[in-house]
Amino acid sequence: MRGKFLTMAISLALGASMLLSGCGGGKDGGKAGDTIKIGVVSEMTGANATYGTSVVNGMKLALKEINANGGVLGKKVDIVVADSKSEPAEAANAMSKVINQDKTPLAMGIFTSSSAIAACNVSESAKVPYLAIGATNPKVTLDDKTGKVKPNTFRVCFIDPFQGTVGANFVLNELKVKKAAVFVDNSSDYSKGLAEFFKKAFTSKGGQVISEEAYLQKDTDFKAVLTKIKTTNPEVLYIPGYYEEVGKIVKQARELGMTMPIVGGDGWDSPKLAEIAGGAALNNTFFTNHYSPDSDSAESKAFVSAYEKEYKQKPDAPAVLGYDGAKLMVDAIKRAGAVDGAKVAAALASTKGFKAVTGETSLNEKHDAVKSAVIIEFKDGKQVYRATIKP
Predict the structure, then answer these.
(1) Per-residue pLDDT tens for 337-383?
(2) Fewer CB within 10 Å: N-end or C-end of the chain?
(3) Which backbone phi and psi does 265 adopt, to 5 degrees?
(4) Based on the domain organization, do 277 and 306 belong to the same domain?
(5) What is the CATH number of the domain that holds 45?
């Protein structure tokens, strides 16, 4: 039933987009006067709210720097934020709002894959270029039915086939264990996709998945399923989920005496994770991520310093991807020479060697970013950089 209502909501938002915007996508309104407006859809409230807050903070910092240096094409750049409420249907509605009501000619945002997939259905119909910030599922930029590349959808982050392989290699080569249990969020495209890519890479290199169980977003009691997993005696537990549920799972697993390493993906990256799980429970846990604030590159040090000065806290991966995404979009506008959807889309597609804080970034023929990943380890609730893995 939930899926039926979700489909209806997305369809209504998509229909509104086509009726109100046609092929123009709010092109004229977004560049009126002395300001270029970019629509931002992000998870400002709901289960994934820390992602959206960080993404928008990163973008604002990037645009503050860009505008202080003269903006782009002689204009200042600003963002118009709409809340996805951490729900796919609401993400579609929010994308329709920034395109049709706010008349923004370009769009960015969203850290979660299911919401990005829903939102880009709207932006694609309106022919508005959209740059996804942290959505890593391949279906964000590829049409699930035809397999063709979506012409107006791009991303600044790596994708899950790479992330899943990095996680599998880390478990096999660094942790040196071969028997894994996998615990998947069945309500998340991100979680299901990352689990599949992890399993494929893990088993192809000699690993064995001896247990696979599922949960749903907003579940709170995982002990019965964890007890079932525990009886299979896995050497590692892989949880490709988001921080709200992951924190509870890790806490309850440790309470059940499950001391094995626990590994996950970039959905773990939130300051809330340590609050939910507790610092001690997170010892011997690891996750693949886009970035570590402990990176010693000059670009990273400058970004971390500026972010800490602006927001009085260390940046997480959503923050740095928001920063990189805003700078990449402005770079594309500059190379396009105009705030024109078709020209900006072409410029985004041709991105090569862009100097991002998260590493040199090029977009491939599927509009996905080709870049490095990092391994993060938790020690007493604090993230510690472990290694950088190049594509």
Answers:
(1) 999 999 999 999 999 999 999 999 999 999 999 999 999 999 999 99
(2) N
(3) -120, -165
(4) no
(5) 3.40.50.2300
